[in-house]
Amino acid sequence: MLDAFRSTAVAFALLLGVAALVLIPLAFTLPDPGRAIATFVLGPFDSVRHIGNIVETATPLMFTGLAVSLMFRAGMFNLGAEGAYFLGAVFAALAILKGGLPAWAVCGGAIVFGGAMGSLACVVPAVLRVRFGASELVTSLMLNYAAMFAGLFVVNYFLRDPNAGAMVSYAFPPAARLAQILPGTRVHIGLVLALAACGAGGVYLFSTRWGYALRVVGANPGYARHLGLPIGRILISVQALAGLIAAAGGAVEMQGLYPRFGWPSLPGAGWDGLVVGILAGNSPLLVPPAALALSYLKVGGDLLSRNYDISAEIVGLIQALVILFATARVRGRLFPFERRRLARQISAETV
Amino acid sequence: MWTNFLVHLADPSFFATVLRVTTPILLAALGALISDRAGVLNIGIEGIMLAGAFTGVVISAFVNSAWAGLLAAVLVGCALASLLFAALRWLRSDLVLSGVALNLACTSATVLLLYALTGDKGMSGSLPSRVLPEVHLSFLKGLTIIGPIFASQHVLTWASLFAVPGVGMLLTYTRFGLRLRAVGENAEAAALAGVHVDRVRFAALAISGAFGGAAGAFLSMGYVSWFAVGMSAGRGFVAIAAEVMGGGGAVGTLLAALVLGSAQTLATNLQGVGLPSELLETLPYIVPVFALVLHRAALLSITPQL
Known about the structure:
The structure holds 2 protein chains of 2 kinds.
Chain A: H1 2-27, H2 33-42, H3 48-73, H4 81-98, H5 103-118, H6 120-132, H7 136-159, H8 190-207, H9 209-219, H10 221-227, H11 231-257, H12 269-279, H13 287-307, H14 314-326, H15 331-334, H16 339-350
Helix pairs in contact in A: 1-2, 1-13, 1-14, 2-13, 3-8, 3-11, 3-12, 3-13, 4-5, 4-7, 4-11, 4-12, 5-11, 6-7, 6-11, 8-9, 9-10, 9-11, 12-13, 12-14
Chain B: H1 2-10, H2 12-37, H3 45-63, H4 66-91, H5 95-118, E1 134-136, H6 146-150, E2 152-154, H7 155-173, H8 175-185, H9 187-192, H10 197-223, H11 235-245, H12 250-269, H13 277-302
Antiparallel strand pairs in B: 1-2
Helix pairs in contact in B: 2-7, 2-10, 2-11, 2-12, 3-4, 3-5, 3-10, 3-11, 4-5, 4-10, 7-8, 7-12, 8-10, 11-12, 11-13, 12-13
């Protein structure tokens, strides 16, 4: 655990370093570089509303970050979290608007239904991999797009409000919205769910038999086979669980922040979850701080784009560099105090 | 309605469209093939396509020449793939995740630069960009089936078709191709045999980047005449699926790309029949999944189980 915290500290230092690397040269193209940087760095903390923005942006990232962490721990390069997240939101909207659930059950029922249906986007690649050996990377990438169009089909044909100008669903009834918990912000009860999920994920991964089996399969499939672990069943169930978490994240996001469904395409939370998982070193308990760190950057980028002639996509560049540096295995050379841990890791890999 | 549609399918102009739709997939798939055979599958080809499409539009608008745009797109593709190689070689970062990072960076960077250049975050409509020409073969016009299919195709469509035997021969019959395959099969053995593994991998990635850049240039300077944000729309991933389906050969890759291109064309054409367009649009992404599974299942059935 200490190792994990240390490497997360390094990852955060990296995050800040990379942000500075991208931002400072860019800021000097603006008329007032100092104020632009201050807006990015301090802006997210300058009001309760902005701090609330950080927390509400981090909430879905905790779900997708946890999902990615579990899948990567099992050694699967399944990138289906993106599609699962989208489908989760779509099917939550379907359950709310067409499910006929009683008012007391609609909130939870929508999250469960959205989670279960959205999970398919991660289960299908897992089954195809285990059963046929088809690369889960390629099939999950393809199925993300298929999931997006299938979701848009559901919205367009079953949920669309003909009186609205754009392709959006009917408005959700108040009973389906998640309660807000901090006055003056839009932070909703989904945050509690996200934190609980990450906590439960940590217990599952490190303190249960199933979590241990999962880690053995991910770390050393040959050894797992030697032990006689049911590898196929473990891989599929882990990815079903991860899909469920990512899709529930989509449902929670939809019910927490939006009055109706109106996403025109994939919102990118799955890719963000990848960055969160990497920053957290695939440790569920470190997912919340990693999600908060990433959403801090996102809010900063957003403020920058609103006040200056710069687009918020700058954060995407920072994320890309973070992925690159955080997965680099030469960090031992860059950060001396990590050297011993990396040496151990590498010798374990080569054995 | 359905009979109309079937008549439409028999029309040679349908196949002409298939070739047009297949072009970017085929170009990118050939790039992916070269990188995969060297053991460094270029997942970043999706982002490289996007960057190529953007560069082609911008350079052709500023230099006022479509060919300069194409050249720039190819060079940018090479440069980005070289960056990927640098990350793999010197940072020793993960192959798949660095590719994902490259895609992310290209998506963001194109929006950022498009906004800086045009003030628009969606399309490059305000840039007076050029398109690459079509090749008109007037002597083919009279022929019954071949005429309508091949008489006027885009120059990059021809390039992609000629690139298939080119890549096939490069991989099979040249010294470089042999070394490339050796590196992909077993890098340590190749290194022991005196092959410069890094050099070969660098070359393979650079070539794949060039193909990706050309595929992007086709999108924005042939398929349509502008750049739109996210216009590669997963074609790079479809291309990777085509390469995997193709089983590691250039001709197989061509056939797989044609299948996926046909699926995409069908998805567009079937919308006239009155089926929901969203469901049809899933077709080009579901077909590769099925094809991949069938391909693997066939392989499993002929190889002895361990």
